[in-house]
Design goal:
This protein is an alpha/beta fold. It has one domain: NAD(P)-binding Rossmann-like Domain (Rossmann fold). It has six helices and seven strands. A seven-stranded parallel beta sheet has the order 3-2-1-4-5-6-7, sandwiched between helices. Strand 2, helix 2 and strand 3 form a beta-alpha-beta unit. Helix 1 packs parallel to helix 6, helix 3 packs parallel to helix 4 and helix 4 packs parallel to helix 5. The longest helix has 28 residues. The protein binds 5-hydroxy-NICOTINAMIDE-ADENINE-DINUCLEOTIDE PHOSPHATE. 5-hydroxy-NICOTINAMIDE-ADENINE-DINUCLEOTIDE PHOSPHATE binds next to helix 1.
């Protein structure tokens, strides 16, 4: 068992819950964040290691400050930060309200920036790892996906800037295609769950990334179901 600490955002369901599973199996003590605290508590009971479920709303800067303070006090410095939480709203650009547009950027971009900044000193000291869960659409676009794609392009830019500014840490941009989660049901034109990646498929790539020796920086990982059309 290792005595390392990891934080996972958006662990109340979907990919985040599976990433938490992998980290717990690998011996990490976990702080899990999401708005749905009850689901985090249920997950904590199922995981093999020590787990601290904490309320976190990434669209609220005060909530991130509280989350960071609670983790620092309870668990001390962290080694791994997984910025997994993300939201999508899908429609034509002119149909978005100001609120919807801002919300996507608040959670997907600003939330990940503020979380990483809050834990940056720990991560540098412990030569830690940041995983930014972006998307295969962090380098391409599709109709009805404008703000979502733009947020993932922006997250890619943040990932790379954090990496360049902090050579002691390793930043991985994890870029999955369509995954069989709650999120995917909200994407128009999605072809159905059978052809999607399973969240476990994506989470298993984290085990590989964690096992890499420190002299190897896995910077980006793109994976899609072979049933998803290749688009670049
Ligand atoms: O989605 P879902 P996934 N503050 O909806 C949390 C990316 N991705 O697992 O707060 C804090 O099942 C929410 O928790 P709660 C995607 O962009 C996916 O598929 O309790 N947390 C829940 O735990 C995202 O970055 C696909 O509601 C907030 C989690 O986020 C990542 O994969 C394709 C929050 C979302 O779980 C995981 O998404 C792709 C907030 N304000 C990229 N709002 C795909 N599924 O097809 C939401 O390319 N959460």
């Amino acid at each position: 068992m290792n005595n390392k600490v990891a934080v996972v955002t958006g662990a109340s369901r979907g990919l985040g819950a599976h990433l938490a599973q992998v980290l717990s199996e690998e011996g990490y003590t976990l702080a899990l964040g999401a708005r749905d605290l009850e689901s985090l508590k249920s997950l904590a009971e199922e995981l093999p290691g020590k787990v601290f479920p904490l309320a976190l709303d990434l669209s609220d800067p005060g909530s991130i400050i509280n989350f960071h303070a609670a983790v620092a006090e309870t668990l001390g410095p962290i080694d791994v930060l997984i910025n997994n939480a993300g939201i999508g709203i899908f429609k034509r650009l002119e149909e978005f309200s100001d609120h919807e547009f801002r919300k996507i950027f608040a959670v997907n971009v600003q939330g990940a920036w503020q979380m990483t900044t809050a834990f940056l000193r720990d991560l540098n000291e412990r030569e830690g790892m940041v995983v930014m869960v972006s998307s295969d659409v962090s380098t391409r676009v599709f109709p009805n996906g404008g703000p979502y794609c733009a947020s993932k392009f922006a997250l890619r830019a943040l990932s790379r800037t954090f990496q360049m500014e902090n050579p002691a840490i390793r930043v991985l941009e994890l870029r999955p295609g369509a995954i069989d989660t709650y999120f995917a049901n909200s994407v128009p034109g999605a072809k159905g769950k059978d052809g999607f990646l399973k969240p476990k498929d994506v989470a298993e790539t984290l085990r590989y990334a964690l096992a890499l020796p420190k002299h190897i920086r896995l910077e980006e990982l793109v994976l899609r179901s072979s049933e998803q059309e290749p688009e670049y």
